Amino acid sequence: MTDEIHIASLLVQVAPESLEDLSQWAGAHPEAEVRGTDPAGKLVLITESEGRQPILDLMDACRDRPGVFTVNLIYHEILNAQEADQPEEIQP
Asked: One biological process GO term for this chain (predicted)?
């Protein structure tokens, strides 16, 4: 196990007629979570992994899907795995 957790969000632009298929595929993909869609052909995915490579693999897999125009990394954060599991202290 690595000491890092990588959290990323992707914006996928797709032909509107392929949006539902991509949403279903992404929802069934173990590393992806669909966080939003736009009927015009936009899909937001969130992923969490122990390294960069699974994020890159997910991006490549999305690009290979029918109707996908672009896949863009919108956000990427690297957290220390031990610190990420600690509850956040709320300041008054």
From this structure: negative regulation of protein transport
Indicate whether 89 belongs to any domain: no
Q: What residues form DSSP beta bridges with 75?
A: 9
Total number of domains constituting the chain: 1
Tokens of 91: 């300041």
Per residue in 4-42, pLDDT (tens digit) is 999 999 999 999 999 999 999 998 988 899 999 999 999
Three-state DSSP at 18 gives helix
Q: What is the pTM of this model?
A: 0.83
Structural domain that includes position 56: 4-84
Q: Is residue 91 part of a domain?
A: no
CATH number of the domain at 36, please.
Answer: 3.30.70.920
Dihedral over alpha carbons 11, 64, 18, 44 (to 10 degrees): -20
